[in-house]
Amino acid sequence: MGKKTYAVSFGERFSYALGDVGCNFVWSVVAGFLTLYYTDSVGITAAAVGTIMLVTRLLDGLTDLGFGLILDRTKTRFGKARPWILWSTPMMAIGLILLFSVPDSLGDTGKIVYATATYIFVAAFAYTASNLSYNTLLALMTNDQPSKISANSLRFICTSLFVIALAYVVPPLVEMVGWSMMAVIFAILATCCFMITFFFVKERNVPEEKPKEHPKDNIGAIESFKILFKNRFFFTICIMFLMYYINASIFNGLGVYYCRDVLHDINLYGTLNACYMGTKFVALLFVPFLANRFGKWKLMLSGWSIVILGMFIMWVASPNVYGVMFGALLRGIGLGPISACLFTIIADAVEYGEWKSGVNQAGLTNSATSFGMKVGTGLGSAIVGWGLAFADYNPNLATQTDYTLYCEQIVFFVFPIVGFVVSWIAMYFTNIDRIYPTIIKELNERKAKNAATA
């Protein structure tokens, strides 16, 4: 068998991957430590934190759809998605610093207002523009399936290693320099990663330009959404993104509490992430081969099944550290192919929509990813905050009550298991693999025909 060739160079695929590292310099810190910062350092109640995050994320879901329309109508010398990566980078950097710099001089109400305003700025505007354009860039970079799968695998290999390091680095770094300076350092590093993606990734899979008199050139917002909602894969992918990020938010947001309160060692949060991310990293190495061999659909169904098993083992074994870590290893194995392929099938859904309607909606279709990420993260964070409040969590106690510990484990394990089962069901109805060759064949034939008659 000949050596596998890619339409996109390794350097460009790696440059694409670094964009997600930039995103995670902001978002993994927010997801993993912002609730802890608010409750234990700022003094905002867990219930208030949960409400802030949920309300913001519901608003954020609407801005995702709106920005999807803007992105589809963007035309610059840099392309559609790349300019938004450039323009949103300063907002992401400034927003991260503002989030972790709540003024001590504010009263309780003032702190809640400040937290709400800065969280809305980051989540509903800065991160929406940055992450939606970044995800859309994958579809615009190439229509070569091996290149897309490889770029996404590299993306999650990089972020897996990063998140492992982050869980170990943030607590001691905060002790040394404080929350605000930690945010400044990460904002600078995030900016460097975003700029590498902007300068070294190109848009070459550009939607075909139609004659100005073409009736589909002037589609309004309502008609655009009508076309989008006829794309049946949009809904099932939305569900999977929603469940994926609800559970990621619970794992990241409650993990530090769980390790400190139930396992009695906050440093085990780093080990828990290392187990999960370590096997996820290994699994990602095999994703390009397995996806090309068996297809994304079968691979992702298997991944969801392994994740469910891993979470169940973690729940049954808790608070046995070794049993919990073994379950985390399985969780990572399952989430490897899911993480890589979930974003890839969005690009496939864009082409499916163009095949069905004749309209390329890369930005609007990719709003499924951003919508699921934002609303899912908001719901997950709200579940963490409300769960801690329901559990009578008290930040002033060195040891939490048995009732609090029991509730922490229910939220940490049972909610994700239910969400992953829902994801498995949604995946069952999202088999694009069986028709994808026909989609690409007919789209290429249309382009060739239009080029010949132009």
Concise summary:
The protein has 454 residues and is mainly α. The chain has helices at 10-42, 46-72, 82-99, 108-141, 145-200, 221-229, 232-261, 268-294, 296-317, 321-357, 362-390, 402-428, 436-453.
Can you walk me through this structure?
The structure is a single chain. With 454 residues, the protein is mainly α. The protein has one domain: Up-down Bundle (Growth Hormone, Chain: A). It is 81% helix and 0% strand. The chain contains 13 helices and no strands. It has helices spanning 10-42, 46-72, 82-99, 108-141, 145-200, 221-229, 232-261, 268-294, 296-317, 321-357, 362-390, 402-428, 436-453. Helix 2 (46-72) runs parallel beside helix 4 (108-141), helix 4 packs across helix 10 (321-357) and helix 9 packs antiparallel against helix 12. The longest helix is centred in the middle third of the chain and has 56 residues, at 145-200. It starts with 9 loop residues before the first helix and ends with a helix.
Counting DSSP E segments of at least 2 residues, the number of strands comes to 0
* Average pLDDT score: 86
Distance between the termini: 40 Å
What number of domains? 1
**Global outline:** globular
Percent of residues in helical segments?
over 70%
> Low-confidence runs (pLDDT<50, min 5 residues)?
211-215
CATH hierarchy: architecture? Up-down Bundle
The CATH homologous superfamily is termed MFS general substrate transporter like domains
Sheet with most strands: none
Output the radius of gyration.
Answer: 22 Å
Oligomer: single chain
The count of helical stretches stands at 13
CATH classification class: Mainly Alpha
CATH topology: Growth Hormone, Chain: A
